[in-house]
Amino acid sequence: MVTATNAYNKRMDGRNFDELREIEAKVGVVKSADGSAMFKIGDTIAIAAVRGPRDLYPRFMQNPKGGILRCSYNMMSFSVDERIRPGPSRRSREITLVTENALMPAVDLSEFPNSVVDVFIEIVQADAGTRCAGICAASLALADAGIPMRDLVCAVSVGKVGGKILVDLNKYEEDYEDGSSDMPVAFLPRRNEISLLQLDGGMKKEEILNALELAKKSCVEILEVQRNALMGKYKNG
Amino acid sequence: MGLIIKEKEFVIPGDIVAEGIDYLPAGGVFREKDKIIAGQIGIVSVDNRLIKLIPLTGIYKPKAGDVVIGQVVNISFNGWSIDMGFSNLALLSVRDATSEFIERKSDLSRYFDFDDYIVAKISNVGKGNLIDLTMKGHGLMKLRDGMLIDVSPSKVPRIIGKQGSMINLLKDLSKCQVHVGQNGKVWINGDNCEKLIEAIRVIERESHISGLTEKIEKLLGGR
Questions:
Q1: With a cut of 0.90, is the ipTM above it?
Q2: Given A14, A211, B22, B71, which is the most exposed site by the fewest CB atoms within 10 A?
Q3: Domain total in chain B
Q4: How far apart are CA B111 and CA B4, in angstroms?
Q5: Could you tell me how far CA A149 lies from the centroid of its own chain?
Q6: Range(s) of the domain holding residue B51
Q7: pLDDT by residue (tens digit) across B197-220?
Q8: Rounded to whole angstroms, how far apart are CA atoms B189 and B192?
Q9: Same domain, B191 and B125
Q10: Could you count the other beta carbons within 10 Å of the beta carbon of residue A24?
Q11: Measured between CA atoms, how close is B8 to chain A, in angstroms?
């Protein structure tokens, strides 16, 4: 058992430091949407639905040069131990914004002037890393909806817990007493670009560079899961 | 160099289909430096030097010459706005709507009213997705009675079949009137509609399985 003064030598759930939690992805879970996906990583479950491209109102938001991407991130009230108040919050506004910026370089909406693509992300169950799970689900849902894309987006959180660099923190590790920093990263694997980078806590320069390498390596694993999920729906149909 | 993913292989967005400058990107793929990259979920199709994707998903992309089924959503002074399931509305101008003489300032709802469904042909797709429709042509008309069902636009070629073989089979065996729009809207009218809807759903679901024609014949009780 790990005590409060110990370094974090072994992970709570017995994983290696560079090991992701178990991932499950499924495409086409929301029948009424144009595209949808479920992404589950450990105990975190995100569902994303895409509608559009469709007409955009109010009219002043329309862009005649190309369509716009509009995201919405929401945690369901039962997704965490203590009920959270439904509806938008400061936190969900922030995550909506960073999700939009993380997905933007991957989609190409120049074919759809004056229109909008809506992405709705719902967190059904939360155990840390919800924004990353949301981005992974949203990228699958966009591909399922047939939106022209330059690349898929994979996202994972890396961090430093008790002095150790590790990938895919769970809630216990995020709240670790002896210091924990958590850095969500969204990655475009083919273009080798990072589209989301936030840091909660403190890390040295070398630690950040090591963590980024670890994140890139893990994102390639996530890409394989995403590819299999898309194949599962379309390869035989 | 050359093709990296073979013809008829499945690709997801971001897959590198070909390298080098030997190939040209057509629909569904794009070029980035010396690579041709898939931009959609689809199946690779190579025609000489052209690489394109047969999309497996996505909304209908209008093309000049396509026959579509749409709904009147707005009437303006010089025509009708038609919703055909695309992100932008299409315009049917008075000039292209009918061969009758329509007097200036006359009430256009006499011809096509709000919520009417029409079969029309796309005459032109301009920049900024300005789409012009025409009603002048064989089989283009206003739809009365009947019902409309939605299918995936990527499955429409299977419902029509080679040189219209499948749609003629559906019409003959069900004794129903059928109109298929390229935008994934199918209008049917007749007494035996339930069987026909079932048959269309089977085509949509099992479009890749061979022996589909026999299955449809059996389902509709053909000889």
A1: no
A2: A14
A3: 3
A4: 54
A5: 17
A6: 2-55
A7: 989 998 888 877 777 888 888 888
A8: 9
A9: no
A10: 12
A11: 11
